[in-house]
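Figure caption, in words: inputs first, then the predicted bound structure.
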Amino acid sequence: MLTNEYLQRVYAEVERRDANEPEFLQAVREVFESLQLVVDKHPEWEKAGLLERFVEPERVVEFRVPWVDDAGKLHVNRGYRVQYNSAIGPYKGGLRFHPSVNLSIMKFLGFEQILKNSLTTLPMGGGKGGSDFDPKGRSDAEVMRFCQSFMTELYRHIGQFTDVPAGDIGVGAREIGYLFGQYKRITDRFDGGVLTGKGLSFGGSLARTQATGYGLCYFASEALQHLKGESFEGKTVIVSGSGNVAQYAAEKATQLGAKVVAMSDSQGYIYDPNGVDLQKLFDIKQNRRARISVYADEVPGSEYHSGCRDIWTVKCDIALPCASQNEMDAIGAQALIDNGAIAVFEGANMPLTPEAIELVKSNGLLYSPGKASNAGGVATSGLEMSQNSLRLSWSFEEVDERLHGIMKSIYKACYDASCECGQPGDLMLGANVAGFLKVANAMMAQGVV
Ligand code: NDP
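Bound structure (NDP present):
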């Protein structure tokens, strides 16, 4: 409940203006609920209109993306870039290509990104972008033409000191390659620092592909050890999704001694009591771009169940939701609790509904919000930018070690902030407060802009 009057007033105004943006309202509400204590201590923020400015994006660009498919048919998609907050660095955040993309989803992701980027300790502001284009089932040539059309508008809004996009759902190495190629062609500049997640032969960073999933497990290990005296060793794990984040979360959890027994895509989930064969899964998803059901067709002893939401009914110790927003509701959370799970660490952005978070926390499970536990992706994007500026490439081990160090420091920042707020171990509270304070200080120092 919001009790602070300033927060109540600003939230009411957001609700009035953005009534048709449910995901955005959900994200703002969650953050505001965590900020009550710190806002009480800073009356000067109200005078400076700090929160009114914090919830309003600095700039939103919306544009037409026309393209022609292989059969010669014309399509028009909608493109977005939400440049949310540049108080601590250039806007930074991924591009999402998925039919569900709309302004509400772009704004919630951009808003979360401000705090996430702040937690990484690197100088990056928050932004997000994308399109309602669906790359599924499209040929490489169609994806290329779409990316070229998208960049033909986007290029004028980005730059290494302005805004640096990366990948997200539906945008992986292939799409970043096409986007970069078109940017370079239009501007006649090899401006490596303008996009991250690039291929290794043109300025990409080793370990960027693995970073979000690996970082999630580094964060989780730290929290498990510190708050429960536990580790991944011998644990049964569910990883929802089977995209970039899920694949490498599953790989690292397995390397750390866990058994991953279930994974999903948007159509259904697989259950493999022997532990998911990751080489098989990577082949199905990375090379064949096929549905996850193919896994059960090819791996004896495994099962496929249609409907991805039921994945949480599989018995596990640790759940790593790595697919999409609001993928775990109260029913899913209750199933985990009933099966004796000890922890939920978010790999996706906002995968738990507010009701699911409440249930998980009140039943004593360890819980971390995506803005803290999935920050390894953007942190490594920050390391890619550093390497581009230095005109150097670090080894896989060097990047991985820096990533590991960053995830440990994010955990510590969240934990310390939770203690300062009198609720030790509430990592959601800690993440929101620690992320916000840095941005708030920078915004106050820079005046009313
Ligand atoms: P990918 O596109 O690589 O994979 C997404 C996975 O989630 C696929 O398995 C997809 O299934 C599934 N999925 C997508 N939408 C839904 C849905 N509505 N319901 C159920 N499943 C769904 O994306 P990423 O792995 O990159 O991203 C996953 C999550 O992690 C997102 O929330 C993203 O914002 C977040 N994230 C990603 C980062 C990164 O570095 N990539 C960094 C930080 C956060 P299908 O193939 O059937 O669509």
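The mean pLDDT is 97.
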